[in-house]
Amino acid sequence: MLTIAGAGMAGLAAAARARELGLEVRLLEKGNRIGGSMLLSSCVIWRYQTLEDFREECPGGDPALQQQVIEQLDDALAWVRSLGAPVVWEETGNPRTVGLRLDPPGLAEALLRAAGVESQLGPAELPDGPLLLATGGFQGNAALVERHVRPAAPLRLRANPWSVGDGLELALARDADVSAGLDEFYGRNMADVDFSEAEFVQLAQLYGQYATVVNVRGEEFFDRPVSWSENDLVQATARQPGAKAWYLLDDAALGQAVRDRTVTEIASAAPTATAPEELPFAAPPGTKLAVRVASAITHTIGGLRVDTRARVLDRSGRPLPDLYAAGADVGGISTGGYASGLAAALVFGRIAAETAAR
What is the dihedral of CA 87, 93, 99, 105, to 10 degrees? Predict the structure, then answer.
């Protein structure tokens, strides 16, 4: 029997693939529902056009793991479609990438249906035998985030609350190795208010590349062009006082478009939008609107070190017996940049099941 710890994208994909391959599966989910943080996302699952593009965007990642995503994602997406997962968009809307947007609840239900098992919800003891760690990273554990990511202040959580590093800590107790990039994370700068799961997308402020960005003292702190994903700006904000910043917008910035909305529409709707004369420092000439943002973490980028067969490696580089990992429990794929965590979870969840079935 293959025990799968976590019923997010990676765990559900592994369970469904394992069922196809004739494995008996036990699917455990610590939370009160399946789907993990995938259920809270926009569910655009994508890859870069080429490995060279992937390497350019994420230079610290393991090229062998990145190659698996490039080579296997298209087949994996065709597979989830064949299982009945509903497609929302046939493309990503980004010329750098290839992929699909799916309906998150529909995708979770299709994978669980294909797995042919009921997910056991709530904390559970892990049995002996083959184990796949798909617990979703450690972003929900403030102590681990402080230890490894080292933000200037606690980060807002833009993810499910159950991914608290269970997979990482279990594997480390078995002498597992970790990847590069334990101090990196994917997230968004959000309007600096308390927010619910339903507001994860709505309150994300995705126009930092057009703004003058300063910290709470009015000091500019980002001295290079903001990347297309803005994840570099989010991580830099996390190292500023309070893990906060101000986006200062002039007429040119307000006239820009981000996907299907203008910057004016996004910023004006932010609860922390304010007039420049209300700022606690002197705004640059021409500033028409300011929005206070806070860095929020969606998932960790560093994690367990695995090989191309999703086997967890020990500190000498050898596979640990019967121990696999996928999803955000795995590091070393998008290190140094940004790539689709859902794509890596889908690909390596399937790989883990195939390896366990050998």
Answer: -40
